[in-house]
Amino acid sequence: MGEKTSFSLDNVRFPKNNQNSYHFPDISSLWPTLHLLNSSTLVSISGALRIYLAFLLLQLQFNILSCIGGGLVVYSVYTLDRALDSEEDAVNRSELTGARRDIALFASVLTFLIGAYFLFLDGLLLLAFLPLVTGFLYSKGIKVGTHHLKLKGGLGVKNLVVGITWGAFIAGIAGWYAESILPVFAVFLYFGCKLFVNSSVYDFKDLKGDALAGIKTLPVSLGEQKTRDILLGIHLFSHSLLSILILSGLIAYEPMVLVYSFIAGIVCIDRFAAPVEKESKNRLYKRLFVVDGESSMVVGLRAIMGV
What's the CA gap between 154 and 149, in Å, rounded? Predict the structure, then answer.
């Protein structure tokens, strides 16, 4: 028999870094990033359908690419606002904490370029930049010397900016080839008032974060009841104006737009113009259905009823 040999690992050296080892990617930001990317989807669809409804009210042949382009610009601007992290968003949108803002910024730029191209095909390129520039001034502002121009503060300024910008955007796209300016101005007032009301209702949900950030929204400055009264007055004014213009023949007879929009606005102000410490999913879905789902319901009901 041969001699028995022994083997020791004492003098064997292993490499410190094993290049074949597998490192799992960090996916902790995946869900917040997807949430951020999806958070503007519904409002962009709503924006595209509002442009379609504006075509109907103005009795003009609608351009589907202009509607889609407008919706993509809406998505881009709202995603940009949420990607540019702000103080109040840390409280109002805590679910976005840890999201990849660079990915959201890329998505915002990409969707804007596609939307702007669609609008360019219809000669509406300049309109694409209206909400983009206004949105940037709203979110971040610009510094001129010692002055900082930002549209996010001030009593009701944010809501006016939202109403005027998107009202002009919707009416501008749909009424670009209109023969008379009066119906286009009426559509601008209607959607401007509606979006002013909707943005103010959303301020109730964000009441805590806005107050901490020093943003003087209507609920923060005027109180809950007075703000609700103002919103109800604006809502009644816009629909009274729309009714008068329908009766005068300046706006198309679209009863579903008038009736459903009126009811949805009343429900919105009555049920959702109230602060909540933490919004439940049930309330969130109802609010999204009433506010952002309004135009989808109008278009759907109009198609079903054939009016």
Answer: 12
| DSSP label at residue 223 | -
Q: How far apart are CA 259 and CA 231, in angstroms?
A: 18
- State both tokens at 54: 């504006």
Other C-beta atoms closer than 10 Å to the C-beta of 26 total 7
Coil, helix or strand at residue 152: coil
CA 167 to chain centre: 13
DSSP assignment string, 220-285: HHH-HHHHHHHHHHHHHHHHHHHHHHHHHTSS---HHHHHHHHHHHHHHHHHHSS--SS--HHHHH
Concatenated DSSP letters for 45-109? Answer: HHHHHHHHHHHHHTT----HHHHHHHHHHHHHHHHHHHHS--TTHHHHTGGGTT--HHHHHHHHH
- Cβ contact 278:92 at 8 Å: no
Q: Are 141 and 150 in contact (CB under 8 A)?
A: yes
Backbone angles phi, psi at 250, to 5 degrees: -75, -25
Give me the DSSP letters along 130-187.
Answer: HHHHHHHHHHT-EEETTEEE-SS-STTHHHHHHHHHHHHHHHHHHTTT-S-HHHHHHH
Q: State CA 243 to chain mean position distance.
A: 27
pTM exceeds cut of 0.90? no
For the stretch 240-269, pLDDT in tens is 988 998 888 889 988 888 899 999 999 999
The 3-state DSSP class for residue 252 equals: coil
Using CA atoms, how far apart are residues 226 and 219, in angstroms rounded to an integer?
Answer: 8
Whole-angstrom Cα distance, residue 206 to residue 167? 23
DSSP β-bridge partners for residue 144:
147
DSSP label of 179: S
Of 260, 299, 242, 245, nearest to 46 (Cα)? 299
Q: What is the rounded distance in angstroms from the CA atom of residue 247 to the CA atom of residue 105? A: 46
Tokens of 271: 């049920």
pLDDT in tens, 35-48: 788 888 999 999 99
CB 79 within 8 A of CB 104: yes
